Task: structure prediction
Amino acid sequence: MDRMERRKFLWGSLIGSGALLANSLVNQGWAQSARKKKLPPFLTGLVISTWNAGLTANEHAWKSLLEGGKALDMVEKGVNAIEADFTNRYVGLGGLPDREGHTTLDACIMDSNGMAGSVMCVEQVKYPSSLARLVMEKTPHVQLVGEGAQQFAVEQGIQLDNYVSDEAQKMYEEWLQKSEYKPIINAENHDTIGLLAIDRQGDLAGVCTTSGMAYKMRGRVGDSPIIGAGLYVDNEIGAATATGLGEAVVRTCGSFLVVELMRQGMDPQRACESAVERIRSKHTNVKDFQVGFLAVNKAGEIGAFSVQPGFTYALHKNGINQIFNAPSMFK
Ligand code: GLY
Result:
């Protein structure tokens, strides 16, 4: 951990302890009301998300839970914090552009009723995950793409934001010198945030949001906004999300696969490992790319596994928010 991360971690732990106290007070009240209404036993809630930025996202998701938010609110609020962080080069409008210099965003969201919304290749929208939620809630569709997604955003009263990151622009201009396009294994290539949550009712939701592969072809869409690839939620079984080379995840329906393996009886860890094994078996170039999966089942057990070492995730459980290193296929 570097100094910044240590500070974030300590701060996270402090907030975690405060949250623990608040949590137990809220729980006491909730338990009384649950007993009165004869509700089923509740969980205390759980949030899990990809990469180190997940620590901040989890805090925001947890705040939403403490304010009475349901799983869907938790996941949206969680990743909104990262989408609004314009220093992040892989999520939101601060993300690296495509090879023609356009920053295009992808996101999808799924709730505990099996409903889903997605936007792909949308520009100038600060919160693509919230737009995906609007697609889910306000249209009869699941996916909106490009200009149509942007038009829908405007119709919903969202003000377009033409923010361009100077640093991202500089990195793009440097890239243009050689215009080499190859997915990089680099563990620092935090390309996505996927976040899964369980609320106090024990219901699940998930979200996945990204600016996609840096310097991608114009119009390229990866796994992140594809229901079943970057994200899948089945409230009876569990939820999964993916990060890394989207093409490999799409080819194997990665997140759907993880949830289906859990349905067949695997625990979340084994399910993530099997999904990585499936990717290995279908790709001769698996040494050259990274994919990571996170999963949680209905009982709140979690799983995390990646192709390459370096995949980190943040887990907010029992009032403590912490970063972990996921185990990986290559060591
Ligand atoms: N996983 C993000 C992407 O491939 O776009």
About this structure: The two ends are 19 Å apart (CA to CA). The first strand starts at residue 46 and ends at 50. Residues 1-42 have pLDDT under 50 and may be disordered. The chain has two domains: 1-38, 41-325.
